[in-house]
């Protein structure tokens, strides 16, 4: 038995690719972050950011939280803020899927929608303006060390021990970059030879959850020295792989996971031997109102 739903954050399963990739000497595993209680990898960072802020006394029950999000972090923050009895407002582009907005509201958060034309950058600017009034506290996932440290404390060790220390390559989509920064820091401490591969969209692609940030919006927690290689994937490739993961592997996930899997398979095809792990960021059910699975 578990004392709280928060006990279920982390320790997500690894599943070996069976149909989308097969090659003698090379193993590809998917880490199913949709198995977190809030349905995505962002549960880890959200829990660590809120719990650490509470422990330090940065926030309390009277604090009004505000955060810009493209979706998964907002859902995770809404869930965990509700558990701790905190008020939170989440700011996101108005073209976010209805499932994401409704899920945040179901957890008790207030959702503010900003212009789709301004993207997540516009949502970040709006949240910054609100915070600067002095009435709000922003966790700021893009510059908060508690974000990447969540993965240093949990994701990295899971990758190391659940592969029996055999992992050779780690592939992760890059959004706030918390997952790849924290996991890289831990894995490189254990074995500097492990290759860390980040995934970005091509210039003409829009893939929710993966970004190639303008310089002014580059996450402050990002350290390029912790990423050995960056692979770019197209929107078309990410969509096709998301559909293949569902149809061929029974892994129902969003487009960023399809993008990461595309890059991971490209990498695996280059290798003669190795054990590659690719992050499956979330579940596909929060994209059903989009065109992803049409």
Automatic annotation (TrEMBL):
Cofactor names: pyridoxal 5'-phosphate
Keyword list, A-Z: Amino-acid biosynthesis, Cysteine biosynthesis, Pyridoxal phosphate, Transferase
Matching InterPro entries: Cys_synth, Cys_Synth/Cystath_Beta-Synth, CysM, P-phosphate_BS, TrpB-like_PALP, TrpB-like_PALP_sf
Domain Tryptophan synthase beta chain-like PALP: 6-282
Its EC number(s): 2.5.1.47
Residue sites binding pyridoxal 5'-phosphate per the record: 72, 175-179, 256
Reaction catalysed by this enzyme: O-acetyl-L-serine + hydrogen sulfide = L-cysteine + acetate
Pathway terms, separated by semicolons: Amino-acid biosynthesis; L-cysteine biosynthesis; L-cysteine from L-serine: step 2/2
N6-(pyridoxal phosphate)lysine modifications at: 42
Keyword Amino-acid biosynthesis found: yes
NCBIfam families named among the record's database cross-references: cysKM, cysM, PRK11761.1
Family, per entry: Belongs to the cysteine synthase/cystathionine beta-synthase family.
Protein name per its UniProtKB record: Cysteine synthase
